[in-house]
């Protein structure tokens, strides 16, 4: 690449989070960076978009110390990418879209609930190469120091090799406390589910309300060493290439047999 | 099936919409029905869940005339299914979860933005067989009369044959004005995208705000007669079996070759 690549950054924890600052710092070493990120936390927003309400977009000085152009948006992560592509950047096509670094895991089925990954998948839907980065540590002041090297290496490899069209990379890092990273595994999404429970309480007026409380249950049986959950549990970075074509091709013939 | 199947219904247009009433009426002919649906419209919510806020769940008399037990929830479609499974039904396992009938198309990539399909996919994530139904007519008072027969037939076939585990059926119907339905096609998700534009306006205080305005662009080239968009455009019901495993298996080896 003769000139510096243009890199668009978004996330779901909001523009003031530690994770996005880490990502901006690393990307600023690689290319020209533009940030369009939510003005408030958007975790668990899945692939939500704002269609029945208005959107605000304001210039932000959040990364002024790094000389990085930034905007904060009232919408979801997917809204941010749409506004970035069609309004902020309009005639400038980003060479890469990166999202994160999320405070918390987006392995396995969490990819479906993840605002971080929805920003990246939205980019892929728009024909842009994209990567979502997540750290398996939910704390507000999580330690990202051990992942900087990996974020940079993965980004450089993606720029050099090109991410295939329609594919989004879902990258998860073990937490800092897990010790030295052993390496990177290209994985499949593990079979798992969130086992929900609801914490039912009474408000001051005596009316019921609920908090969602989920616990993650790994449903793998047998050898799961090719899964993202295995990689993280064993100290590796997991990288799952994701498609947005949900068609279950292998099931089509079976359902054709129903005689509908 | 010796006793009446237990059918859980949700949607994204909200509990008062015409589409969910149509669905409740048809399902009440087939089984015992419980409704847990949003108390307000949730279109475009994707797979959002409520994790930083509380949820309300109230008994509703919306379908009292049909003798159907119903609840309205302050959350997203995915929240409704979670609350239904883990709180409302707790020890009763539904034989089928159906979502819709959506006022508007959920073909092609719209499946990712769809609240209707997120309720159905959430059910599949929880190990339950599920179908999302959508009518390609966005109007509030859309005519659903031509789809009742198809909704019933598809549901009966799904109950009789069993939907494979982890698969969700995404069913779309042509609008009433398209004339008589020609039949049903088991399809793949069409290659298409939403081409976004933003309508930028000034509020009374002179500050900018935006409305998202998208137009759907079919990106298919060559023969697309196996796609859902083709089916709808040609007067057929489209049925796409969907997976929630986003792994792009065919791309794994290529990325392994990057030497990360």
Descriptive notes:
The structure is a homodimer of 260-residue chains. The first copy, chain A, contains seven helices and eleven strands. The N and C termini of chain A lie far apart (53 Å). In chain A, α1 (18-28) links the parallel β1 (6-10) and β2 (32-38). In chain A, 25% of the residues lie in helices and 28% in strands. The first copy, chain A, is globular. The first copy, chain A, is α/β, with parallel strands linked by helices. Chain A has one domain: Stationary-phase Survival Protein Sure Homolog, Chain: A (3-Layer(aba) Sandwich). The longest helix of chain A has 14 residues, at 148-161. In chain A, the strands form two sheets. Chain A has a nine-stranded mixed beta sheet with strand order 3-4-2-1-5-6-7-11-8, with helices on both faces. In chain A, α1 crosses α5 (148-161) and α2 packs parallel to α4 (115-125). The interface between A and B is large, with 77 and 78 residues.
